[in-house]
Specification:
The chain is α/β, with parallel strands linked by helices. The protein has a six-stranded mixed sheet with strand order 11-16-15-14-12-13, with helices on both faces. A five-stranded mixed sheet has the order 18-26-25-20-21. It has a three-stranded parallel sheet with strand order 3-7-10. Helix 2 (43-52) packs across helix 13 and helix 10 (285-291) crosses helix 11 (299-309). It binds 2-acetamido-2-deoxy-beta-D-glucopyranose (10 copies). Residues 1-18 form the signal peptide. This is Fibronectin type III-like domain-containing protein.
Length: 756
Amino acid sequence: MRLFFILLLLNLILWIDGQSGNFPDCKSGPLSFFPICNQSLPSRERAADLISRMTTIEKISQTITTADSIPRLGLPKYEWWSEALHGLAFSPGVFFGGDLPSASSFPMPINLGATFNMNLVHRIASIISTEARAFNNDGRAGLTFFTPNINIFRDPRWGRGQETPGEDPFLTSQYVYALIQGLQRGHDERYLKIAANCKHFDAYDLENWNGTDRHHFNAKVTDQDLVETYLPSFKSCIKDAQVASIMCSYNSINGIPACAHKFLLETIARESFHLNGFVVSDCNAISDILHAHRYTSSVEDTVAVALHAGTDLECGVFYLFHMNTALNRKKIVEADIDQALMRTFDVLIRLGWFDPPEQQIYRKLNKNNVDTLEARQLSLISAQESIVLLKNINKILPLNLNQLMNKKIALIGPTADATVTMQGIYHGRAPFLIDPITGFKNVTAGNFIDIQYARGCGISSHNEKDFAAAIKLAQSSDIVFFFGGIDNTIEREGTDRKTITLPDVQLALIQQLEKVSRSPLHVVIMSGGGIDLSYIRNSTQCGSLIWMGYPGQSGGLAVATVVFGQYNPAGRLPVTLYPASYVNAVSMFDMQMRPSSTNPGRTYKFYTGQPVYEFGYGLSYTTFNYTYNNNTFKSFVSMQSLLKNIEKEDHTIISSIRINVTNTGDMDGDDVVLAYVTPPTINNGSIVPFKQLFGFERIHLKQNETKEVFFPFTIAAALTIAENASKWIHPGLYHIIIGQQRMFSITLEGESIQWA
Ligand SMILES: *[C@@H]1O[C@H](CO)[C@@H](O)[C@H](O)[C@H]1NC(C)=O
Ligand SMILES: *[C@@H]1O[C@H](CO)[C@@H](O)[C@H](O)[C@H]1NC(C)=O
Ligand SMILES: *[C@@H]1O[C@H](CO)[C@@H](O)[C@H](O)[C@H]1NC(C)=O
Ligand SMILES: *[C@@H]1O[C@H](CO)[C@@H](O)[C@H](O)[C@H]1NC(C)=O
Ligand SMILES: *[C@@H]1O[C@H](CO)[C@@H](O)[C@H](O)[C@H]1NC(C)=O
Ligand SMILES: *[C@@H]1O[C@H](CO)[C@@H](O)[C@H](O)[C@H]1NC(C)=O
Ligand SMILES: *[C@@H]1O[C@H](CO)[C@@H](O)[C@H](O)[C@H]1NC(C)=O
Ligand SMILES: *[C@@H]1O[C@H](CO)[C@@H](O)[C@H](O)[C@H]1NC(C)=O
Ligand SMILES: *[C@@H]1O[C@H](CO)[C@@H](O)[C@H](O)[C@H]1NC(C)=O
Ligand SMILES: *[C@@H]1O[C@H](CO)[C@@H](O)[C@H](O)[C@H]1NC(C)=O
């Protein structure tokens, strides 16, 4: 943290005194004579030549994220660390101001998970990369972004789970693929639009728990969990989406610090997933190898172990201070540094950094491409699509504007006036922030409805002094909303929650409001991580319950349009909501997904208890009916026929699942159709998931409209991961569940096949 501020300060100074030198001068500067500026050469040759012209000390200056300029060669300084998790975000590389005072602030990734709409994710990512280029062209951002976070939201206590799309490896894989396409690929296929970074590799999902923080944590991960849960999102990011970089994490994995983990970085990321780009360390993680993990005993060994594992770039200053020592003591050779710089400069070249601006469309983007009407609409729509309706007794929602004339609506609670809170963490400066009160006033404008607000209580402080005013307001109101939840005082980077209950003070206020409210109370929850909402679910005095995540700049307007029925909600929970007792049932340190004597199992796949609300849950104002026609459906498949597939392609279709979805209710709306498979239990094999997601689609249906959705049931969906991480297709009965209904059965006949 302290390092962060020093770097920030350092950057501010560098930025003020050197703003003009954003791009290398390939026209008239010293570089223009070198192959680095020759576009007809392959990027690796261009990089190699530039590196060969640097002295050793100059090379070392380029191994950290705040890379210094090399005036002798005409190379400008470059800050590798910019952030854009859900919009351009505060970071050492990003500066808001001048013509670019703000950038679009989209909902947090946990909300994007709840939309189950990957086309939307792609469009958001395209806008983020466009705005990033506009900032870069104005000297206000880099081109390399340490975004996204694709660790699995394993435990509800994790403070950074909000940065991810949730607990499911399949959903996270789909999310990251769509996101990386939108960030890195635009209309000019010759260049990366921006360079993204998948983090944190790997098995990072703990901040600080019971006295052990992320810098010291050793994640004990079985091979089975690694292959089944902790690697798929990275495979999707690196191999399928071809991300330009990944970040090694703070923690150790089975005793080896991630940034020193040659097997993970070299064998898995580079050799198996074909990483075409660089590995950057998390900030200060190299120092942690020595000082926190005590994995090494000298600075030079630490440099060597990280560099040899494949950590090419450091966020921090350890390489800067100690790489020369490692060279002098012969722990590394100069070629090790050259290889690291090859990988980083190659990415800068692929970004067009050294190429003439005239021929690059991305270099023409400017303030007119930031905070556009399209971006504003998309941020509202994505917030609307992410809202999850959890409870709606007697169709109490939506409220009918026409029946509310001269009525008084009370908005009570600590998140009713939330602004920056709606941005979650890793955010920037939004062009505006529409809090729920403003949203309600907007949607009800002209209808003579009196919207009144009382805070009632804070997020978690035990102070009840504002209860009385809130209760008085509730007594005099026709309809009462409680806006609660949590915020970054409780869940954030560096801080995991200790409990997953709604803070006591909020529950106490809810119970008092229930007593005085003239009509059933409405509850709206803002949070990233799951909260035990069973009291609200159970209470007959609570009529409706909405989860709104951290919905970004237009979040308050989005929730108001849901409440008053201008938008029909269809978000689905991207995480399991566990009962409060969950935190006592399993250690935060336990990385195992499958249940054991000290673990009730994690996520919808393995949790053996009764969730408060399950993964995938979410209501609509309309109803949908699923019908199918099994004439074309193959319900018996011989294993032998699968083997005919010589390449052993994961995407080979075993059977095609088609269903018709009909909107049978009285309102237009979206439906998220989720397709799960329950694999057969093999005689003596390990525990199989209750079910696992293999397909999903969000469709819009007008009243009475029917659409067909198609889910290929592929080899990938049928694979079972054995305890030793080998992949198998077993014979037996596979049940296909669509939404909540078990609909199809497929029998695979023959002998088990080991898959590549
Ligand atoms: C750039 O590289 C190409 C291919 O090697 C070469 O033919 C050309 O002469 C080079 N251009 C300059 C200006 O050096
Ligand atoms: C938490 O730390 C205490 C004190 O070190 C220890 O006794 C306890 O076993 C730890 N709990 C878990 C679940 O690790
Ligand atoms: C409601 O919000 C929209 C979008 O932000 C804005 O254009 C409109 O002027 C607002 N209307 C009122 C009455 O506040
Ligand atoms: C909610 O209801 C369930 C089942 O009826 C019960 O087991 C649970 O204790 C109740 N929880 C709360 C907080 O009221
Ligand atoms: C839904 O479809 C089933 C056939 O799968 C049919 O029996 C049922 O009547 C339909 N329900 C409604 C409400 O249309
Ligand atoms: C869906 O409905 C269309 C039109 O009625 C029909 O042609 C098609 O076979 C149906 N598909 C399924 C899977 O039932
Ligand atoms: C189609 O469904 C019917 C009724 O559910 C069932 O009896 C039949 O076996 C199914 N056919 C196939 C090919 O699965
Ligand atoms: C079944 O268990 C035996 C003995 O533990 C083992 O050798 C064999 O590989 C197991 N088979 C499967 C399919 O897991
Ligand atoms: C939907 O179908 C029902 C029953 O057929 C009909 O009464 C209703 O008017 C239809 N609604 C629309 C919007 O077409
Ligand atoms: C892995 O386990 C499976 C059974 O689950 C067994 O058949 C296979 O031989 C094992 N592979 C290795 C390399 O041990």
